[in-house]
Structure prediction request, 147 residues.
Amino acid sequence: MPDDLQRLRQVWNQQQVPVIMRNSKSRPRMRLPFADDNRHWIEHGRSTRAVWMRDKKQWEVPKSWFNDLVQRSLDRYGSLYIIQPFVEQEKCAPACMHAKGHVCQCSCMGANHGAGMTSDWLVISDNFAVRYERSMVACRLLRKKIQ
Prediction:
């Protein structure tokens, strides 16, 4: 098994840090450390219900919950793994650097996401992006900012 795939499986199967996995074709899946109130916490008063997939020990949630779940996971647990697709040759752009929220698919893998524009970037246009067909999966660990 390739090292990257093995690492993704280790992250997904560990039980100490929450993990949310998203892709472009299906709803996000989430694993949390066990707690009696996990369903209540995930649904957060919404009328839509999260789906518990008992055989896979994971939650399936609507795509629209992604940013909120990331932020609330950071608030509750202090850290969170995100497993997500990215396009290997996609370039960063002002839209990424000025982004709000946590959805990032560009090749910077979140390194510049929401960080603001710096003078070392050559901006071709407001929405410059280059894509290749090869899609990959990456994992990143987010930690709550200490203020």
Q: What stands out?
A: The chain has a mean pLDDT of 84. The helical segments are 3-13, 38-43, 66-77, 94-97. The longest strand covers residues 79-87.
